[in-house]
Amino acid sequence: MMEQVPTSVLSDDPCHLGEGPTYDVTTDTAWWFDIREGRLFEAQLGSGSIRVHALGRMASALGRIDAERQLIVAEDGLYIRKLADGAMTLFCPLEADNPATRSNDCRVHQSGTFWIGTMGKKAEPKAGAIYALHRGKISTLFPGISIPNSICFSPDGAIGYFTDTARAVLYAVPLNPATGLPRGEPEVLLRHTGIGGLDGSVCDADGNIWNACWGASRIDVYSPQGERLRSLSVPAKQASCPAFVGSDLSRLLVTSAWQDMDAAGRAADPQAGCTFLLEASARGRAEPDVKLA
């Protein structure tokens, strides 16, 4: 059954393609991206104030380095961004020689290793990959990915999850908890059927996987064994990615998108692209800092 939980609009500034939400518990600040428009949103949850930063390039995710810096994952590389003034400095290129691709879903492992997904700007088959930034060096984990999504990690760091949305399969892969790198091959955890597709995911403190079902107006919650436990309604058709936010990490921030909608489609889905807060009745985990060395 679809649950109707208390839901509010955090931002009614519609994102062409909302993605990459994360939360800094030390400053009570939520961050997310509008990939297509090259925008970074910054929301102070306590005050409700929201700032929008123009990045000048497509970007999809960030990791906190320390109190003064972030690592931004963009279409042509990884950038260190200073919070004080927004200045961005290239840390290392990534697929910079391939203008047909961009970054997509990413997440930081408890070890500080950053998993980074790339894809074709037109979702070309197998044009992307999933990489790991481990102690300042990038390695390829899984090549030939069409639409990388659902990158998240079990609470003990021993299991990594990801999907290629085009394949409708959520994979689980054993990891070295100390490094966030695979120590085995991916196995199929579940196969998605029905309407919508597997998009972004996050794990809660109990190890359950909260997945945004793109095209189905919902968040699905799966057990570590792949059993669907709950489905929460989202007031926009194309929910894209969740993140736990708030001082007790009990609320779920959900991004969405109006991508590929014509005028009639947007009229039928008036909150498409908005960013929401759901009272999740669950507890998340604080996002770790990314380690560069």
Which short descriptors sum up this protein?
globular, 2% helix, five-stranded mixed β-sheet, 293 residues, single chain, mainly beta, five-stranded antiparallel β-sheet, 1 helix
Which helices and strands appear, and what pairs or packs with what?
Elements: E1 2-3, E2 7-11, E3 18-24, E4 29-34, E5 39-44, E6 49-54, E7 59-64, E8 69-74, E9 77-82, E10 88-93, E11 101-108, E12 114-120, E13 128-134, E14 137-145, E15 148-153, E16 159-164, E17 169-176, E18 181-182, E19 187-191, E20 197-203, E21 209-214, E22 218-222, E23 228-233, E24 239-245, E25 251-256, H1 263-268, E26 275-279
Parallel strand pairs: 1-23
Antiparallel strand pairs: 2-26, 3-4, 4-5, 5-6, 7-8, 8-9, 9-10, 11-12, 12-13, 13-14, 15-16, 16-17, 17-18, 17-19, 20-21, 21-22, 22-23, 24-25, 25-26
Instruction: Summarize the helix and strand pattern as letters.
Output: EEEEEEEEEEEEEEEEEEEEEEEEEHE
Q: What is the makeup of the main sheet?
A: 5 strands, mixed
Overall body shape: globular
Note the gap between the termini.
46 Å
Overall mean pLDDT score? 97
SS summary, helix count: 1
List low-confidence stretches.
none
Specify the helix fraction band. under 10%
Structural class computed from helices and strand pairing: mainly beta
Strand order of the largest sheet: 1-23-22-21-20
* Rg calc: 17 Å
- Strand count: 26
Please indicate the percent range of residues in DSSP E strands (runs of 2 or more): over 45%
